[in-house]
Design a protein that fits this description.
The chain has 127 residues and is mostly beta strands. The chain has no helices and eleven strands.
Length: 127
């Protein structure tokens, strides 16, 4: 049974940092590309970052480029999202997802590309 679990969310002041983690089990993690998504109240889910199954390429949405960094540790079956210079508009539920053999550049920011999803973790940025 595949499980994907996010952690690391919380409340932070504007300008602060958080690091999200996403641990996957029940699958060959090193064969899965991974993505981070977020959804704010009343808004559509947004694909903000993804990393290929090889770890060799990454994608960032314009809204987070230069502030967020995605990375993965295959030995720990864990995906990370380092979030710096947080803004109130970053407030959302953040979820990670896994897609078999996902390559960046194949519309990796589209939710429909993914096979497995976590439940999400809340990030709240106060002004």
């Amino acid at each position: 049974q595949v499980q994907v679990v996010e952690s690391g969310g919380g409340l932070v002041q504007a300008g602060g940092s958080l690091r999200l983690s996403c641990t996957a089990s029940g699958l060959r993690f090193d064969r899965y590309g991974m993505g981070w998504f977020r959804q704010a109240p009343g808004k559509e889910r947004e694909g903000i970052s993804c990393i290929s199954w090889t770890g060799g390429s990454t994608y960032y949405a314009d809204s987070v480029k230069g502030r967020f960094t995605i990375s993965r540790d295959n030995a720990k079956n864990t995906l990370y999202l380092q979030m710096n210079s947080l803004k109130p508009e970053d407030t959302a539920i953040y979820s990670c997802a896994a897609a078999l053999l996902l390559q960046v550049g194949t519309n990796c920011q589209s939710p429909g590309r993914y096979d497995y999803w976590g439940q999400g973790t809340q990030v709240t940025v106060s002004s």
